Amino acid sequence: MLVKTRVSTNNHEVIVHAEQPGNILEIIAQAGIALDAPCAGLGRCGKCRVRVQGELPPDSVETAVLTVEEISEGIRLACRKRHIPADLAITIPPAPQEERIITAYGIVPVDIGIAIDLGTTSVVIAFINLSDGTIMAMHSILNPQRTYGADVVSRIKAGLDRGVLEKMMTLTVSSMTRDIEEMLSGIGLNGSRVKVVYIAGNTAMEHIISGMDVSSLAKAPYKPVFTGMRNIQYLKSKPGIAGAEVRLFPLISGFVGGDTVASILACGMDVSGETIALIDIGTNAEIALGNAAGILVSSAPAGPAFEGGQIRHGMRAQPGAIEDIHIVDDDVDLQVKGNAVPEGICGSGLIRIVAELVRSGVITEEGELLDAGHIEGNLSLRSVKKGDEQAFVLYKSFDREICLYQSDVRALQLAKASIATGLELLIERSGLKPARLYIAGAFGNYLNPDDLAFIGMIPPYLAGDTLFIGDSVISGLKRFIMNEPVVDMDRLLSDIRHIELADDPAFNKKYLSMLALTPRVR
Predict the structure, then answer these.
(1) How far apart are CA 521 and CA 271, in angstroms?
(2) What is the DSSP string of 205-237?
């Protein structure tokens, strides 16, 4: 059963749909938010305090650790295993200026499974208690390969040099194992308790970390060197995971990797009686559609717009990023991540801004950013010419100006059309109409389904049945590690069929029709 929860932090709210979560920490992790929980659920460090609204009685540990006032105010410990009721509201308080340092003695030894989401930009590591499946600790680090380029194509090109490939592999492994050691130290356990490690990433990331030749990924037909579940023997001797079974998740194609397989497990598509659609939004968006009877998968080259790339004032979703906008009576109200001074526009902010400006008549359905003479009211004062390009001023101070440019709108159109076309072609190929859409990735948590339908990225009928599942890779790996529900990996892989969208004769015509910033007809 899916549990719907509202998670709020820094004046930002995320709706999370979790499958029978064992504790609040799992819900927060699924929302893509990092929260310290170093004492492995013993409740002794107190660092995972959250405020809840709803029926959630304190347990005996919370009664002993928290004050009466804190309990009455709804403060609870996110790491404590408990039944999570539906429609709970969770608020993550600002971190205190001074932290209480509490040494945890007598930690009960437990065996650990480690799930690693090996992303192009960041690497997320989660410790899973093998006795009950709860997430004991989770941490995110930047992928050190970024020295060799921000995107997959750059990494592949760099990896054609065997020496560089080995450097990228060594950097990644060292960074991961160092973080694992620190996490183990934080919960008072040693590496002997780590029994299994599963790593899932896109096809290029899995090739690089295993030291495999990437040249086949650099040219058509972009075939991976391996596809099945793969043991990485050399990692078994590394600090923190010495002796554990270390495996890479199976791959599907050159552009659809183990992260997609894990995401399919996370949303339960392989055991679903109803048809489910899945979109993992990113530079290379993965799309899946199907149910227990079979699954179609593909990838859509969306480009970096959703991550703030190729946007004139684009940036990653970090403090200073404009992430939301409301226009009422020509007044522009911006919401900035971290309540900071605006520094740029993140991917989710780009979608919100464009959708709102289309609604306000500043941008046409064809994607044209109108000049001041064609805009009514005071919003016309914000439409200016910057060189040869039209721009809309979002924020201006004595030393800074942040604008949305015409080229930014075009970049979003190209990205959303690619994803919309991919999903539509899979629907047409399968003859199935999805009853539900899952959007994966922490980025997805900050999107509004109504905006996605309004600009034509998803079908209107799915707007009310769109669920955001946060870090679906960690959730999928956890499901596999715990085998709940039971995972038949061989059957799953045999049921997955990869569709190469570029080979579909209808792709170009369909793609052009999806460029308009208007709701889709079907």
Answers:
(1) 30
(2) HHHHHTT---GGGSSTT---S--S-EE-GGGGG
Q: Which residues contact 475 (CB under 8 A, 6 or more apart)?
A: 19, 30, 262, 265, 266, 469
What are 1-23's pLDDT values in tens digits? 555 666 666 655 666 666 666 77
Residues 285 and 484: their CA atoms lie apart, in Å, by: 27
CA distance 438 to 417: 18
Tokens of 111: 């065996």
Q: How far apart are CA 81 and CA 116, in angstroms?
A: 22
Sign for the CA dihedral angle at 311, 316, 320, 325 comes to: positive
Looking at the predicted structure, is the pLDDT value of residue 445 above 50? yes
Of the candidates 278, 276, 226, the residue with the CA atom closest to the CA atom of residue 251: 226
What are the strands of the beta sheet with 436-440, ordered from one edge? 466-468, 436-440, 276-280, 284-291, 294-301, 496-498
pLDDT number for residue 471: 81
Strand partners for 3: 18
The contacts of residue 250 (CB under 8 Å, 6+ apart) are 227, 228, 229, 230, 258, 261, 489, 493
Phi, psi of 451 (to 5 degrees): -65, -40
- Over residues 368-417, the pLDDT tens digits come to 999 999 999 999 999 999 989 999 999 999 888 999 999 999 999 999 99
- Measured in residues, the chain has a length of 522
Pair 344, 314: CB distance under 8 Å: yes
Please say whether the beta carbons of 467 and 439 come within 8 A. Answer: yes
Burial 273-300 (b: 16+ CB within 10 A, else e): eebbbbbbbbbbbbbbbbbbeebbbbbb
Taking Cα atoms as reference points, which of 8, 44, 37 lies closest to residue 23?
37
- H-state helical runs in 292-400: 347-359
- pTM metric for this prediction: 0.78
Omega prior to 221 cis, within 30 of 0: yes
Adjacency order of strands within the sheet including 331-336: 331-336, 321-328, 344-345
Tokens describing residue 141: 């680090």
Q: Which residue type, as a one-letter code, is found at position 247?
A: R
Question: Beta 284-291 vs 276-280: how paired, if at all?
Answer: antiparallel
d(CA 128, CA 138): 9
DSSP 292: T
Nearest-angstrom CA–CA distance, 156 and 165: 9
